[in-house]
Write a structure and sequence with these properties.
With about 200 residues, the protein is mainly α. About 70% of the residues lie in helices and about 0% in strands.
């Protein structure tokens, strides 16, 4: 006599739970959610760049090298397809991370150049863009840290026994994570705080 279907289903659920299948699925969804937020914040930063470059160019058109570096770095980032599958490809993920790092460096150099132009720093549009960029860099840091934690939990779940047997059978592998030479530097968003230009003293009578 065959066991009832309900009994077979119950046994299947117990087996899947015991081998970590369900937990791996939960961790995988958390990674995907965290990755989506990372991409959202990077896209937010990318969207700010054209207006930022245009504003700086209005006051410092001859700073061609720095302006070109930012534009080129943004184009390099846009040329990488940041799909959900990217986090399963370590080489592609490293390329994505390098492109974002280069863009961040180019932006930092642009902001340093802007310090030499008091009229630019006093421009309302520029100061608004500066505030938006600063907030976005902070959100990138938060989103990236959440992703790092989610990937760590997922990778542990597919490497530890008995979950690793399930992962091996299903073809699930550890996911790529952010890695830097200087973690302290990564955790600190680029400083984009500007000092208002000093007021011009009134002429003596």
């Amino acid at each position: 006599m065959r066991p009832p279907l309900a009994v077979l289903c119950s046994l299947a659920v117990l087996l899947l739970s015991g081998c970590g299948y369900n937990q791996i699925q939960v961790n995988d969804e958390q990674v995907n959610s965290a990755w989506s937020e990372v991409l959202n914040q990077y896209q937010r930063r990318s969207d700010l760049i054209p207006n930022l470059v245009a504003t700086v160019q209005g006051y410092a058109a001859h700073e061609n090298e720095v302006l070109t570096q930012v534009t080129t770095a943004r184009a390099n980032v846009a040329g990488i397809k940041a799909t959900p599958e990217l986090i399963n490809d370590e080489a592609a993920f490293a390329k994505f991370q390098q492109a974002q790092s280069e863009l961040g460096g180019a932006l930092s150099r642009l902001l340093v150049v802007a310090e030499n132009y008091p009229n630019l720093k006093a421009d309302a549009s520029f100061r608004d863009l500066q505030a938006q960029l600063e907030g976005t860099e902070n959100r990138i840091t938060v989103a990236r840290n959440r992703y790092i934690k989610s990937v760590q939990e997922y990778n542990i779940s597919v490497r530890t026994f008995p979950n690793n047997l399930t992962a091996l059978a299903m073809g699930w592998k550890p996911k790529a994570n952010f890695s830097v030479d200087n973690e302290k530097a990564l955790a600190t968003p680029p400083r984009v705080q500007f000092v208002a230009p000093a007021a011009t003293p009134a002429p003596a009578n």
